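Quick question, first post here. What does this chain look like in 3D?
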Amino acid sequence: MITNKTAMEVQNIVRAGGSVEVDGGRFTAMELQNIARSLLPGAFLKVHNSDRYTAMELQNTARAKPGQVVLG
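> Answer (accepted):
Ran it through. Tokens below.
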């Protein structure tokens, strides 16, 4: 799980084709949505500690890349 990178650094990792696991406590919902939008086909974003977000925020994050976002 990535714990020491900024949202922009994680976004650049997924733009390069990586799948990532992040601590949801470190990012805003909007940052997670932007990371998800940057995922390439076949890559995944797994968000740990996602219970801190509202249901609507989680829906919007999942909607950013359907099937590629895992919430836990």
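Residues 55-64 form the longest helix (10 residues).
The chain has a mean pLDDT of 96.
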